[in-house]
Amino acid sequence: MSDTDGLLKIDKLHKRFRLSSDGWFGAKGQVVNAINDVSLEITKGESFCLVGESGCGKSTLARTVMGLETTSAGSIHYMGERIDNMSDAARLPYRQRMQMIFQNPYASLNPRMTISQTLEEPLRFHRPDLSDTQVRDKVVEVMESVGNNTSWLSRFPHEFSGGQRQRISIARALMVDPEFVVADEPISALDVSIQAQVLNVMMDARDHRDLTYLFITHDLSVVEHFGTRVAVMYLGVVCELAETKTLFASPRHPYTQLLLSAIPKMDGSEMTHDRMHGEVPSAMNLPTGCVFHGRCPHAKDVCKTDIPTLRQVAGRQVACHFAEDTG
Question: pTM (2 decimals)?
Fold first, then answer.
């Protein structure tokens, strides 16, 4: 990545949570290893997708990037400036440049505020220099740009469907003209019939506003159409990182291969994928060596003892001791 293209850099990031209650079978004081030595770079203008099963650390990474969680180790840089250790006051300008779309449109909108008040709030906070007329004009412009009806502005969130609420949430994120948007499972709570509509709104916004996305999802079929590059996570570790077309054409990590083989075929043909055996290990007690070795059909003795690092293999990065043999 060149200095001119680089937007976000995550370097050797760790995030650990110490349990403070006995709620999990007397687990007080134990540590959940949510993110484990993750390094990523996101280029300006791309739609970078982060995928994996529930509980793999995707949302924790997103919240840590946005400053909603603190880092346990490592660093996060935005346009060359380290932001993870900034005070709230120092980070304020970055909160305008970096916005987030949350997973649940039923919980992310204030039920006591009209849509107009919801959209005006971030603009009045970050741009107090704007007049009331300029604020109202901006609200109308953004609403129309994402295909929302401006007649919605006087209404409340409970009057809208999930898809409509998520389009309102997208509009809210765009109100302050951000450069970078983190979308945390933005369509997973929506009916399949309207997921494509919301994705189209997000892609249109990317193209017309020169946005960069960090898109969090567990749905690989969405990634294939939306993402420029994709990182596959398992138990807080990045297993494989590649351009989307490369990953779908020839996955190299055994976990990626199993995930891709489980995608239903559009022609209705029967799936013949290998089932993933066993359960995801506990993040409180990470396996030694490769975190996937207990479920991997190709695991050997070295996988149980030595942690594989991301390395270049066949045009992508793979954290597997035997990546050359799995193509």
Answer: 0.90
